[in-house]
Amino acid sequence: MGAESSGVFSYHKEDELVGIEGDKNLLMGWLMNEEQRQTVVSVVGMGGSGKTTLVARTFKDEIVKRHFECYAWITVSQSYVIEDLLRRLIKEFHKAKKEEVPADMNAMSYNELLEILVNYLETKRYLVVLDDVWDVHLWDKIRFSFPDKQLGSRVMLTTRREDIASSSFGVESHVHKIQPLERGDAWELFSMKAFSSYPNKSCSTEKLVEKCEGLPLAIVALSGLMSSKKSLTEWSTIYNSLNWHLTNNPLLEPMKSILLFSFNDLPYRLKQCFLYCSLFPEDHVIVNHRLITLWIAEGFVEHVEGLTPEKVANSYLMELIFRNMLQQRFRGPLVACKMHDLLREIALSIAKKEKFCAVHDGSETVEETGALRLSIQTTNGEIGSCTGISRLRSFLVFATGVSSFSFSNKLPFDLKLLKVLDLEDVPLDCLPDNLTSLFNLKYLNLSGTPITELPESIGKLRNLQALNIR
C-alpha cells in the first residue's frame, strides 16, 4: 500500500527551513507509526527543491533518534559501487553508536559485507537514509542488506526521479512529493538573502523571483547574486542578461552544476529531445502530441520492433517528466508539458554552445551561427533578415500578440535541408511562394492559422509525413 502527499515549505536565514513542521511531522509519522513491517519513505522533487534538507531535518530530530536503535545516512549519487555502499553503511551504523568499526573491510567481498550488515541489523529497529538515488535498480541490489524482522524499521530515500519514488519496493511504502515554494514564501526567501530590509518590489526583481518558479536553490543563488547590486538599473541588467550570467558568473556555478546533473544523466536521445523543448517560448505549455510529432520528424526517435514511433516518443516524454526535467500540464483537455524557466535557460546555453538550436526575437538580423534549429519569437509580426543558415533542420515561429504576419511572400532564406516548419497560431494570410521547394520537409504545422485552403503544389512535398491544419 502506498500513500502520497505534497509539501510546500518556506525558509529563513542560513537556508534553514521554517514552516515545514507539517511536512516534517508527516515524515516523522511515517517513520514512527504503529506499522511493524519494514517501510520505505521516498521524498521526490527536482534538483534544488529541498529534498535533502527536509529529510536531514527529520533524520536529525531527537525524537526520531530515540525511536530507532541505530541509524545511518549515505549519499548514493549517479555512479556507485554496491560494495562501497555496504562499507559506508557499516561504518555509519557503528560510528553513530560510537562502536568500533570492523577491521579490513576494504578486503571483504560483497557476501562478507552483507553478512556483517545483516547480522548487525536483524535484531534492531533501524533507520537508513539513501540520499540522491538515480538508479531504478538500486533497491533490488541493496534490499537484502536490510532484514525485516517486523521491528518497525524504516528506509528513506531522496530522488529526482518519480519512477524510482513510486517503485514497487515489495514492502510498505509512502511518497512525499516536494512542491515549489508559494509566491509569498519565495519572495520572503529572496528578500532575506538579497536585501537587508524589505525593499519596494521592482518589476525586474519580481520577474527574477518568478523565473525561479519556487525552486529554493535558484532563489538562494540568484538572491546572493543580487545582494551586491544596489540600484534598480543593476537589477534590471541582471534579469535581462540572466542567460549570460548562468553561463559565465561563478556565483551561479553551484546552482548550475546541480541542475546540470539531471541533464548529464540523460541518454543521448533524451538530451536531444530535452534541448529541443527550449525552442518554445518561456512558460509555453507544449501539447504533448505536437512535441512528439516534432521529435519524430527530426529523427530523434529510435525504431523499436513492435512499437509505433509515437509510442516510443511518448515513452521519452514520460521519462523526462518522471525525471522532473519537464512538468506535466494540461492545455484545455489536451495533455501537455512545460519546461522550468531556469532549466530552459540552461538548455539554451548548452544548445547554443553545441550549435543545436538558437532563439531570436525577430527584430534582430539572424546571421551565421551554425545552429541547426531556429525559433523566432516575434511580438511585432516581422522577421529580420536571415543569412547563412541554409543548414537549418527546424524552423519554428511564435507570434505573440500580433494580428498579422507576413513572410513577404517568400521564406526569408534558402532551406533545402529543412525537415520541420512549425507556424502554429501564426496569423498568416497565405503560404510563402517557395514553400514547395522544401523537398526534405517532413512536418508542416499550420494549426491555428487563418489559412483555409492549400495550393495544389503542396503535393510536390514528397517527403511530408505530417500536415497539421486543424
UniProtKB/TrEMBL annotation:
It holds the Pfam family LRR_14. GO terms for biological process: defense response to other organism. Keywords: Plant defense, Repeat. Residues 279-347 form the Disease resistance protein winged helix domain. It comes from the Eukaryota. Residues 22-196 form the NB-ARC domain. The keyword Chloroplast does not apply. GO terms for molecular function: ADP binding. The keyword Methyltransferase does not apply. Residues 392-470 form the Disease resistance R13L4/SHOC-2-like LRR domain. This is Uncharacterized protein. It comes from Prunus yedoensis var. nudiflora.
